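2024-03-11 09:14:02 DEBUG pipeline.ingest accepted 1 chain
2024-03-11 09:14:02 DEBUG pipeline.ingest length=272
2024-03-11 09:14:03 DEBUG pipeline.predict start
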Amino acid sequence: MTSTLSDLEHSWTEWHSLREEELRAPHGWLSLTALHWLTPEPATFDGIPGLWSATPDGVVITATAADDLVVRTVREPRRIDGTVTLHPVDGLPGTLVEMGAAVIEVVRRTDSHAIRVRDPEAVTRTAFAGVPTFPVDERWVLHARFEPYPEPRAITVDAVVEGLNHYLSAVGEVRFELDGQEHRLVATGGKAGGLSLHFRDATSGGSTYPGGRVVRTADPAPDGSLTLDLNRVVNLPCAFTDFATCPLPPAGNVLPVAVEAGERNPLRPDRV
């Protein structure tokens, strides 16, 4: 038992270190400092040069070379000197516009466009001291079974921003037993393979973020079996910043038990 737990803790520690390193990235989720929704009327925003507006065709930016706004493109960076139109895709990471050490992310969410600033000097990043977690425990490593749908199902979920929706592809359900009771969660496909389970539980809104947490798994075996390690449940970006537009869990993805595993409510230096 001791050896197994030590192996589990060692593996988790390596994984958690990589997780926190990713959060600390200069332009990662901890660097967000502003979120501005755009309208058809060109507007200015504090600390951001140029005029910004949104049309059905995309986001229109008007700036001069002296404003030093540089669009990151696949081919080569392009300094804005005049008017350009960007075409972010709903639900995907936005187009980045460099502004000195910071970047402006141009995003589309549902039928709205917005810009958000990613600044390495954001207090949420510079004061980041790690993510509080529950103790690692082998009781949270569960045998589970994936039951795929005959075809992926398009589902719509709400967002932490009122009025926004996220459009996801549900690929099936994951069934597992916890404390003698069977539970099922709707699964979506992971961006890098595997499955993603976004859920609330009895800790949500207490010791953990009210919008739920996410755990990702490897690809199921051919018979559908998989390991569900709830020690690796993580917060969504909206737990760390007020400037994210995260989805809420799919309908029904609520566990009646307290999953005291994985990440807890993060510290918020921006609210001190």
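2024-03-11 09:14:41 DEBUG pipeline.report The chain is about 10% helix and 40% strand.
2024-03-11 09:14:41 DEBUG pipeline.predict end
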